[in-house]
């Protein structure tokens, strides 16, 4: 039997070279297995196909209403009468450190009153939300790590304030798939971009197909909202033939290379773009809603965004994130009385309508609504700082020590207040709840054990909550 000539260099493989060669082979096998999945209707099964969770879920969809910039807890859902008693005076304690210097107690310019059978107090800037307070769990003891927008946004959205990690919506998309193969499983809507831009809905090390699909909702026409939604040159049957050919070429390309997750994501994006032509134009067109429904949500950009969110979850989209505006609109270092009232008025009617509308359609129990920002604001007034504010002494600084969020629908315990800040609203003290605890609880409502819900990357099993987080069972109905 003849052999090829012996090469002594073959005995000199470094450990890195050995692992690299093995990795290429295993990667090819992994990608081949993706391409060899069960065929349905003659096509490869999509990674967005619905998947089972660890246990029976209470929620099937999420609508995250993101008040980017940091709404003030003491002006919205956490009343603090002590601020009025100490108005203009220094607090009888040292002000916790925040991003900028703050001074005396700054009482809310708004009025709080009790609502519903639960008697939960809500600010008068949210009258429509207040009507549904018996369906809401108000979390008054949230806290985060850092009083800056960028890391706090990443922590709230991706579970890590510093490193690039998959967003919550991408984790949900990865874990559950989506109920409608003709629409993205994760949609992020914002009129412009928030701070950190697309990092807020990134897929990180998860396959690219799970990244959020961004829509600039300043645009109203569907063909502007979703670029190239329709191919006017080629009919659908011909597009299908082109995609089938492209898929065969890409498969041949992939077989000769290691696991190319970007190639797989590109193939899936082509497929999704093709399928979206059949349904997206309808899903994003609110003119197809009856007039009384449009009036119920109200006028304006926020009303349109929130109504689209309802239309998307109604059609099976798994995770919809609704950002309030460009940059950080709720970031009121000055004129908080004017700014908070204006922004609340823009979204209050639509949020109340969303809850009522989901109920009348039988979707409320399946849809988890999350409201809040990346942190809260100080109960003390922000002091003038050149280059940082307008020097009006009527605004509040960022506050990560204690803030408020609320949940509704999707198995949440309504008419319930969880935890408390100190008597001035500065620091979470009772039943403190970190962002990791929030994520663990939301995943539990979606049917996942956050400690077992992992993705292996770079030799480690990663999870949204990293090595932290506890499920807060008091929030669950």
Description:
There is one protein chain. The protein is of the alpha/beta class and 477 residues long. It folds into 2 domains: 84 residues, no CATH class; 360 residues, Alkaline Phosphatase, subunit A, CATH 3.40.720. Helix content is 32%, strand content 17%. It contains 12 helices and 20 strands. Strands 3, 7, 8, 9, 10, 11, 14, 15 and 18 form a 9-stranded mixed sheet that branches. The protein has a 3-stranded antiparallel sheet with strand order 4-12-13, with no helix packed on it. Strands 1-2 form a two-stranded antiparallel sheet. A hairpin with a 2-residue loop joins strand 1 and strand 2. The radius of gyration is 25 Å and the shape is globular.
- CATH C-level of the largest domain: Alpha Beta
What's the CATH superfamily of the largest domain, by name?
A: Alkaline Phosphatase, subunit A
Q: What is the total tally of β strands?
A: 20
Oligomer: single chain
- Beta-strand residue fraction: 15-25%
Indicate the low-confidence ranges by residue numbers. Answer: 6-13, 16-42
- Global morphology: globular
Biggest β-sheet strands, sense, barrel: 9 strands, mixed
Secondary-structure-based class equals alpha/beta
The total number of structural domains is 2
- Mean pLDDT over the full residue set: 88
